[in-house]
Amino acid sequence: MHLLGADHDGAGDAPMWGSGFFVAPGWVLTCAHVLRPHLARDRERPFAVRGADLNDGIPVAARLAHWLLSDHERPVVLPEEDLALVRLLDDAVEHECVWLADRAVRPFGAVVAYGYRPDENEASAGAKPWSADAEINVRDDGAGLRFKPDIAFPKGVSGGPLLDPRTGAVVGLIKSRRKERDGGMAVATLALRRFGAAYREVTAAHDRWHGTAPRVITGDNWIDEQQRLLGAGRHAGHELWTPKDAAPPSPCSPACPTRAPRPPSRRSSARCGAAGRRVPRPRC
After folding, report:
1. How many C-beta atoms surround the C-beta of residue 266 within 10 A?
2. What is the pTM of this model?
3. Is residue 265 included in any domain, yes or no?
4. According to the model, what pLDDT value does residue 266 have?
5. Could you list the residue range(s) of the whole structural domain that residue 30 is in?
6. 164 DSSP 8-state letter
7. In whole angstroms, what separates CA 207 from the centre of its chain?
8. Burial of 79 (0-12, 13-18, 19+ CB in 10 A)
9. Total structural domains in the chain?
10. What pLDDT shows up at residue 26?
């Protein structure tokens, strides 16, 4: 899905701000720098989100709930601060959610990148879905990642998800492209933990949604599709876990599922990806 202004004059499509994706019912994750130019003066300003499989393509009103920016006037946004959580204003809107990696890792190697780019038609301000097979070959500081410079990231894809094709989990977000060069930067999803109480709230909602084994638009459920991934049957032994993988205590009720460490292979809806294999496609 992509983000756009809600105060458009109605003449044609509103210009897109950037990309994002649903991590829990009513919750969208994107990059903070996508929203900063539009919300720095008024964080309460409503805007809209739109996607091909969301609300029949009709924009849905939303508002910024949290972002990690410590200084919204800083010229360069640090990777560990470049996350924002957006809340839909209508809880009745139905949608699918991605599966978030529950291990505190910074991915390395092959990923599938998704997002939206502006329509190339000069007469339109709309957005078109975009995806690419990419490779992360640099881990930069705490949550920063860098892509191997063989992919040209178009304008608008910042905030889009990065999928691990082996497990079906979203492991990061596209942060930025390199000026006048191929390649770009990303943010590992482990930075979500910096949201504190909001992270626990969103994660609990994420787990409840996936715990119902929902049926997706493709007609397959997440358990079925997980078995088709490259990582199906891959067992995560104790040596793959770190102390950071344990989730902070959650204040929710005893019936609420917790983020206990689990094997990395996960369920997701699927599309064709690298090397013709079926890999999960997030509803972004």
Report:
1. 24
2. 0.76
3. no
4. 36
5. 2-88
6. -
7. 16
8. buried
9. 1
10. 96
Amino acid of residue 14: A
CA–CA separation, 113 vs 133, rounded Å?
6
> How high is the pLDDT of residue 130?
93
Run means of pLDDT, 10 residues per run, the chain, 284 residues? 75 80 97 95 94 90 96 87 97 92 81 90 72 89 85 91 91 79 82 96 93 60 56 47 46 43 35 38 59
Q: Which long-range contacts (CB under 8 A, 24 or more apart) does 244-252 make?
A: 244/104, 244/190, 245/102, 245/103, 245/104, 247/102, 247/200, 247/203, 248/193, 248/196, 248/199, 248/200, 249/200, 250/200, 250/203, 250/204, 251/197, 251/200, 252/200, 252/201, 252/204
Q: Is 194 helix (H, G, I), strand (E, B) or coil?
A: helix
Q: Tokens at residue 191, please?
A: 């930075």
**For residues 94 and 3, what is the distance between their CA atoms, to the nearest angstrom?**
17
pLDDT at 183: 63
CATH of the domain at 18: 2.40.10
Give dist(CA 178, CA 140) in Å, integer: 15
* Enclosing H/E stretch for 206: helix 197-211
